[in-house]
Amino acid sequence: MIIIVKNELQQLLQLKTWKDLLASLLAYKVSHDRQRGGPFATSRMRRYTEQADKFEKDPNEEPPSVDDEVKEEAEIAMKRPATGQHRDPRILWRRLEHSTSGWLAWAMVILCTVLAIGVIVAGVAVFAVYIFFKPKMPCLVVSDAHLVLLQYDQGGTVQNLQMSITVRAENNNSKADAAFSSIDLALGFHGADIVLLRAEPFVVARNSSLPLQYNVLAVGPTLGLDGMRAMDESLKAGMVPFDLFGKARTRWKVGVFVKLRYWTRISCRLRFFFPGNGTVVPTDRDRCRSR
Question: Can you spell out the DSSP letters for the chain?
Fold first, then answer.
C-alpha cells in the first residue's frame, strides 16, 4: 500500500495545472473509496467473504447460484456508472464543472440583480434630492465698480489709483447655507498685478447674498513700457480696461449627508469711462461673475 501511495504522489507531482491536479485527486478518492474494506477489497470480494463466513457457520446452507450472482451483478451495474468513468479525470472534471456551474450562474444572477437594484435606488435617491433641494452653486458677482482716480509717471509707475469695487457673494440655494473661504482676487492691467483683494471666511444664508466692498488704493505698481503705452492709448480712447480674476472655495450641504465643496473662479475685464465719470461699462459688469 505504501508503494502504491508513493507512486500516486509521484504522478500528482508531475501534473502542471490545478485543473489536472484536482481531477486526479477526485479520481484517486473515488478509486480508494471503492476499494475500502480490506487493503484493496472490492464490493464483490466483500460479498464472497460474507458467503464464506456463512458457510463456515452453517455448511448446510447452499451458496447463491451462478445465475443469481450474474443477475445481482447486472442490477448493481445498472445503478452505478462504469468503473472507468470514475477513474477518468476528464470525466470527473466535467462532472465537477457541471455541478458547480449551476451555483455559480445563480450566484452571478443574484449579484447582478442586487447591483442593478442598488444602482436604480441610488439614481432615484439622487433624482429625488435634486428635485427637492434643486442645488445651485454659490458664486461671486461684480455688482458695481467705479474708477475714481488714476495717476502714473513717465516711468510707468502708478502713483495713485483709487477705485471702488463691490463683489456680491450669492447663494441661490433655498434650503442650505453656503460658506465662502480662501477668497483671493487680483486686479490687473495689461498683465501686471495692481492690487490683491481678499476676505476672511464667511457664510451666506440660504437664498440670499452678501456684498464685499473693496475700496482700492494702490501706489507704486509699475506697468512697464508696454503697459504704459497701453495705458496712454486707453486714456486717449476714454476707456481704461482692468482685469479682475481669482477664486474662492465654496461649501454647502444638499440634504443631510451630502456635502459639496467647489472652487468658484472669476475672470473678466472691466472697462471704465475714464477720463470721464469713471463708471464701469454695464455689459462688462453684468457678465463679470464666477463659474
Answer: -HHHHHHHHHHHHT--SHHHHHHHHHHHHHHHHHTTTSSS--HHHHHHHHHHHHHHH-TTSPPPPHHHHHHHHHHHHHHS--HHHHH-HHHHHHHHHHHHHHHHHHHHHHHHHHHHHHHHHHHHHHHHHHHHH-----EEEEEEEEEEEEEE-TTSBEEEEEEEEEEEEEE--SS--EEEEEEEEEEEETTEEEEEEEE--EEE-TTEEEEEEEEEEE---B-HHHHHHHHHHHHHHTEEEEEEEEEEEEEEEETTTEEEEEEEEEEEEEEEETTTT-BBPHHHHHH-B--
Chain Cα centroid distance, residue 12: 44
CA distance 217 to 141: 21
Q: Which of 130, 211, 141, 213 is nearest to 173 (CA)?
A: 130
Would you state the pLDDT for residue 84?
Answer: 47
More confident: 136 or 278: 278
Which pLDDT score, from 0 to 100, does residue 5 have? 77
80, 44 contact by CB (below 8 A)? no
Q: What are the angstrom distances between the C-alpha of 124 and each of 107, 118, 119, 132, 185?
A: 26, 10, 9, 12, 40
Tell me the β-bridge partners of 198: 184
- Please state whether beta strands 158-171 and 139-152 pair in parallel, antiparallel, or not at all (unpaired): antiparallel
- What whole-number percentage of the chain has pLDDT above 90? 35
- Cα–Cα dist 21/10, whole Å: 12
Over residues 55-84, the mean pLDDT reads 69
> How many residues in total does the chain contain?
291
Q: What is the phi-psi region of residue 173: left when phi exceeds 0, alpha when psi lies from -120 to 50, beta otherwise?
A: beta
Q: Give the amino acid at 250.
A: T
Q: Which residues pair with 247 in a beta bridge?
A: 184, 265
